[in-house]
Amino acid sequence: MATAGSAEGKKITVLSIDGGGIRGIIPGTILAFLESKLQELDGPSARIADYFDVVAGTSTGGLVTTMLTAPNKEGGPFSAAKDINNFYLEHGPKIFPQISRSNFLESIASSIDKLLLGPKYDGKYLRTLVNELLGDVTVKETLTNVVIPTFDIKLLQPVIFSTTDGKENVLKNARLADICISTSAAPTYFPPHYLETKDSDSGRTRTFDLVDGGVAANNPTLLAISHISKEMVKQNPQFRDKNPMDGRDMLVLSLGTGTAKKELKYNAAKASKWGIFEWIYEDSNTPILDIYSDGSSDIVDFHVSALFQSCGSKDNYLRIQDDTLTGDAASVDIATEENMQRLVETGTKLLKEQVSRVNLETGRYEKVDGEVTNEEALAHFAKLLSEQLKLRCRQ
To answer: From residue 225, how far is each of 163, 228, 232, 347, 389 by CA, in Å?
Structure first.
């Protein structure tokens, strides 16, 4: 792998994590490996939040972002990367309670009832869990800059929560617990989340009616880059003299949560017979949501890949994604022990796969001749991040 972007100068470092429900186990596996490599270089106390200027996450990626960057009582990050998968393995079955497949009639009746009368899950366990874990910690308190998208269904526009906005505007300084619940509120799966913020000095309030940020930006990489551009316009000294439209000034790691094998999940012959209900819910899947989330993720990768390639700095952008998931592994909410272990294995296998990049003509991820494995690429990326941290500490 080329060494473009090594320690010849300070670069903006970005971590981005897609949405994808229980499939957050896949980036969780990759992040645990990355953090282990950083610890080999800089000691056992090294944590992901130490190395990235911006961490962006949507939906389940927003939960992971929060776990990596929210402060604990000792002032370190709430969770080490190696503990992310333990979170999913412990709490996934309660966030997404499964109906026994042995009772077919119960399963069908429940699916129809949920489709017609409300979201598939009531979200009570997730809300209780994140409120207990995060309490009243707000977004301005994160250990590094975060960017977490949501979507306001009342205003029909995205609402992006970030550390810098929280510091500058008390009405955007929402509790991290509320942000996590909001960015994870996938339509048809969980109910929307209502929250209010208040400026105690002026007495002003702001209300939000929020659903999953994935309806606008399931892959938040471009949001992170746009956030950096906005901070440059505001003359934020952290991003001074850098150009986020020049890939030579950045190191970006973008982690997908996997997508279904393209030719297997849906096809035109099948979909041509669907009415409105099948587009919303078909055979335990949600076709319209899958199309929007996968489409928005891929178009972001198109854009960012083209940006870095045009600057001759393709090795400064590493996207790790698996687009060959089949069966339960392609679902966002099948949290059986068998499927969660399968997702762990998928992430582990992905580390051993050769680095792939999106083909700008076909849209498919293709292995690149002469490239190393994702595991080797991440080890190299860890070295670059370590060098950047040392540069930052000397400034």
So the answer is: 15, 5, 11, 26, 19
Tell me, yes or no, if 313 is annotated catalytic: no
3-state helix, strand, coil in the chain (%, to 5): 50, 15, 35
Tokens (6 digits) for 69: 């960057």
184, 61 contact by CB (below 8 A): no
Residue 5 lies in a domain: no
Whole-angstrom distance, CA of residue 257 vs CA of residue 31? 12
Asked whether residue 6 is assigned to any structural domain, the reply reads no
Structural domain count, the chain: 1
Contact (CB, 8 A) for 325 and 261: yes
CB 320 within 8 A of CB 9: no
pLDDT of the residue at 7: 37
Strand residues in 109-231 grouped as ranges (E): 145-152, 157-162, 193-198, 205-212
User: Catalytic: 296?
Assistant: no
Show the tokens assigned to 250.
């950045």
Q: Which of 212, 290, 301, 315 is catalytic?
A: 212
Quick: pLDDT tens for 10-54.
899 999 999 999 999 999 999 999 999 999 999 999 999 999 999
The active-site residue, picked from 59, 313, 331, 386, is 59
Provide the domain limits for residue 242. Answer: 12-394
